[in-house]
Amino acid sequence: MLGEFAALVLCLVSLHSTAAQIAIPQPLARWCVVNDAELKKCQELAEATRTHAVTGRNTTLGAYTYQYTDMPTLSCVKADDQYECMQMIFNADADLIQLETGLSYTAGEYYNMMPLVAEKYVAGDGDEGLSYYAVAVARKDNPSVNFKTLQGRTACFPGVGRAAGWVYPISILMEQGMMEIVECNVPVKSADAYFNGMCAPDALARYYNPFGNNPTTVCKNCIGKPGDYCTCNDPYADFPGAFNCMASRNGEVTFVRNTTVAEYLTQPNVTDTADDFELLCLDGTRASVDSSATCNWGSIASHVIMTSLVRDTNLRDKYKTLLMMLSTDFGENGASTDLFRMFESLKYGRQNLMFSDETVMFKDISQVAGGSRDTYYTWAGSELHDRLIILNSCPIQQARWCVVSDYEMQKCENMIMAFSAKNLKPDLNCVKGTSVQDCIKRISNGDADLITLDAADVYTAGKDHNLVPFAAEDYGGYEMNSYYAVAVARRRDTFLTLFNLKQRRSCHGAVMSAAGWIVAVDKLIETGQIRVKNCDANLAVSQYFSKSCVPGILTDYYNPFGTNPVSLCEACATSGPKRCVRNDDEQYFGASGAFRCVCESGGDIAFVRHTTVRENTDGRNQADWARNRRSDDYELLCNDGTRMSIDDYETCNLGSLPPNAVVTAGFKTKKEREIFWTLLNFAQQFYDSDTNPDFPMFDSTIGHKDLIFQDATVRLVYIPDSNQTYSAYLGPTFVRSMQRQKTIDCVTGSAAVSVHVLTVSWWLVAVALLYFSLSRRY
User: Fold this and answer.
1) Which residues sit opposite 718 in a β-bridge?
2) In this structure, are residues 373 and 379 in contact, taking their beta carbons and an 8 Å threshold?
3) Digit-coded pLDDT (tens) for 731-740
């Protein structure tokens, strides 16, 4: 009995073990498709693999035999376009996609994808049949169209970003000087200005139209229904669609691959013949459509199947094996074409679904050219890379950003790498200046191009050096494009108001900064608390406060005679030669530094921006000094002598101020300023998030704030052309404040001097008259 029971247990265990092995699911191979026709084909291919397995068929690859049950399970997911597919694969929501070479380069460069196998257009084990020619085609009965007469013609493109259908033709026209670069980083606009109407699928997609301002004429000749219009699913998209666009006389020229003519002629109801079309050669001649070897615009590597580079190596190998099995079983000469034909699409209503219909078989990328072409970069080849550089060329070679500290230089260098990673033009470069004033002079002299300046520095740069603002920081999104200057004190110091600050300690972002100095000193003079004598406002401030931190007040530029009181730097924190300098080498520099000055009891009051307290409290700043600060420990000092919450800045402030602005030299042309703006505008589309792991454009390193841009910046906005002067940008109110800062402190002194001079003059006249009278008498 026990023996029978033991045997039963062993049997159950064995069955359970076998069931567990069978139940172990294989990983998925999720193929990303972009339309319903592709989805149907994909689903039928997946079903064919299951049928292949059920019927007990094996697949032989070299010396090994495989079954689909041992491979990742093929399934299908649908996206709107190839770029959404790339993002899905990047996010691990899909695994595989076929891409033509131009798009595969994009996938590798921006979505961390790699090629597994390539489409092969000629049978055999060698490397032949792994490329095709890019050609331009026109109807034979339209002989006036040739390479030299393309401007003003109507054009049909397979899709923006495709190698043969966009990158090569547009870059060649640019390289030859035939197509003017209308806007850097936006070749779509250059093409639109060159051609007289186009169908350029994806030209209005967000990837190529991030600001939504590409001209709609780029899609003028497309015919898709709503939802498909001018996308990769437009009837005039892809190579057959673009050719059909031209053949139907909706365009005069099309840019396709050399095999497209033959593909087009296989479509039902086509009455044209090969003799009805001719190739456009780069020397201005035309040739028959079978002359692509000698009349072409470049050689392009074949399409590839890609996956994410971050997938497990073993899983990637399994994907590759699966793909080679599919090619062996369902390719042109596959052993199981009775179940499915991979490289045929017309039965689904379109061509080139999932794969190019002219594909014969797949080729393992790692076996091409001895394994030297197994990355997206090497597969595409250096010529495509060079073409992309030309495509994104810019009339200005570089934009030189001037920085004033080592920490700004470090961020600027990171910004160079970030901009370069997105292939943004012009190239960014960094120039180290000794001070803001030095940078202003460098830009004025043409030795640098850009810097972000506080409103007060914008005034000085514009008035004295003819620098002009063209982009402004925005601190409130779409609601506000300015900020408030506020006075901040510790909540526990309840006795402090804006009218009893005498002999207290003050913290200022920097000398001659808008919120930290101009408005603060102006307010104290206006309310009669500071009385300036002998034209020396700095002395008056030092006599009013017991000590201060005013970064830059002792530098040569602001202290040319060496007369500024040392007490104006006694509240600063940094030691050594960098103490009280006008950059972030001084710990209490800038609005955040001035607030830190109060937090660490270096001062009693800080003159800062309305955003400063929130930026540095409640866990928003991870620096040691700010980590445990609470926003409700601080209050604002109001103009009427009251105190209010830090969130009541709209009613409790010292004044509204223009935001910081990016400036350049006044001699830069309008087009040059627009190029600089386009560079920054594109950059912020990629890097405006403070949590971006690649590069946060409007955030600084822990321990430092407001490097290059204010950390409170939400976005940069373009300053209208009519406001691109310092006076128009700053407005009359702030300009008067700056003028008053330079003159009001001398009014009393000037008046006193005038009276004194007048008195002395009358005394001299009296002496002279007395002398004259006495000389006459004697």
Assistant:
1) 471
2) yes
3) 999 999 898 8
Same domain, 311 and 435: no
pLDDT tens readout for residues 705-733: 899 999 999 999 999 999 999 999 999 99
Q: How many residues does this entry show for the chain?
A: 778
Same domain, 245 and 355: no
In this structure, the answer to whether residues 554 and 645 fall within a common structural domain is yes
Q: Is the peptide bond before 226 cis (omega within 30 degrees of 0)?
A: no
Residue 535: predicted pLDDT: 79
What angle is formed at CA 678 by the lines to CA 676 and CA 681, rounded to 5 degrees? 110
Residue 189 shares a structural domain with residue 294: yes
pLDDT at residue number 477: 65
Mark 20-56 as b/e (b = at least 16 C-beta within 10 Å). eeeeeeeeebbbbbbbebbbbbbeebbebbeebbeee
Confidence bin at 690 (pLDDT 50/70/90): confident
CB 729 within 8 A of CB 723: yes
Q: What was the pLDDT predicted at 19?
A: 41
Per the structure, the complete domain to which residue 586 belongs is given by 483-657
Task: Looking at 331-470, list the stretches that DSSP marks H as alpha helix, in order from N- to C-terminal side.
Answer: 376-380, 382-391, 406-421, 436-444, 455-465
Looking at the structure, tell me whether residues 70 and 91 fall in a common domain. yes
Q: How far apart are CA 270 and CA 240, in angstroms?
A: 12
Q: Within a 10 A sphere around the Cβ of 437, how many other Cβ atoms?
A: 22
Query: Dihedrals φ, ψ of 314, to 5°?
Result: -65, -40
Structural domains counted in the chain: 4
Cα 341 → chain centroid: 43
Note whether 73 and 210 are same-domain residues.
no
In this structure, the strands spanning 298-301 and 131-139 are antiparallel
